[in-house]
Amino acid sequence: MKKIYIILLAIVAIVVILLVLNTYLERGTFEEIVFNKYVENDVFTYMEIKGDEGERSTEDQEKIEELISYLNNVKLKERSYRLVAEDNKHLRVNLSNKGRSEVLYIVIDKINVNIIYKTTSLEYKGEELRKEYKITDKDFDIEKIQEIYDSL
Fold first, then answer.
1. 49 within domain boundaries
2. pLDDT digits 0-9 by tens, 84-131
3. What is the rounded CA–CA span in Å between residue 72 and residue 65?
4. pLDDT, the chain, mean
5. Can you spell out the DSSP letters for 13-26?
6. Is the pTM here over 0.85, yes or no?
7. Strand 91-96 vs strand 102-108: parallel, antiparallel, or unpaired?
8. In the prediction, which pLDDT does 11 show?
9. Is residue 141 part of a domain?
10. What CA–CA distance (Å, rounded) separates 149 from 140?
11. Biggest alpha carbon–alpha carbon distance for the chain
12. I need a labelling partner for 128 at 20 to 30 A (CA). Which of 2, 34, 74, 107 fits?
């Protein structure tokens, strides 16, 4: 009889831990989770995308805004582990402000977004933050970012 209670208690403990972890993880749009949380200045003046054909960069505000406006509404959920997309196609996007004191590195594939945020501002003393997110938006298409890359 004691064994049954111990097993039931263990199962209840595991369920409670899973529920707490699931509700603790951040959820929201790219704008809410990434741009509003990490970025001090809302203005990026330089964009660099690394893809299959090498590195392409621009200071064209229209291209930068096109990428940001597409990413803004992509729905994300924080995760504590990483899954690898089947085809492993990914793009690396670097966004920075004028003095390059604030840089947002985004490694994105079909199912993952890896965020690395760096700042050299004195207020944050060279802070670097890293987060993993799962893309939960069914309408997300990495080909849209590939089109922006191809147009550079």
1. yes
2. 555 566 788 888 877 666 788 888 887 778 877 776 655 555 556 677
3. 10
4. 79
5. HHHHHHHHHHHHS-
6. no
7. antiparallel
8. 93
9. yes
10. 16
11. 71
12. 74
Q: 29 with 74: CB under 8 angstroms?
A: yes
Inside any domain, residue 113: yes
CA separation for the pair 152, 56 (Å, rounded): 6
Strand 112-119 and strand 128-135: pairing? antiparallel
Residue 45 belongs to domain spanning = 27-151
State the total domains in the chain: 1
pLDDT of residue 12: 92
CA distances from 95 to 9, 10, 11, 39, 104 (A): 49, 47, 46, 10, 5
Give domain status of residue 15, yes or no: no
CA neighbours within 13 Å on the CB side: how many for 7?
Answer: 4
pLDDT digits (tens, 9 = 90+) for 44-69: 888 889 888 889 888 888 998 899 88
pLDDT mean over 13-29? 79
CA atoms of 113 and 116, how far apart (whole Å): 10
The pLDDT value recorded for residue 86 is 54
Amino acid at residue number 37: K
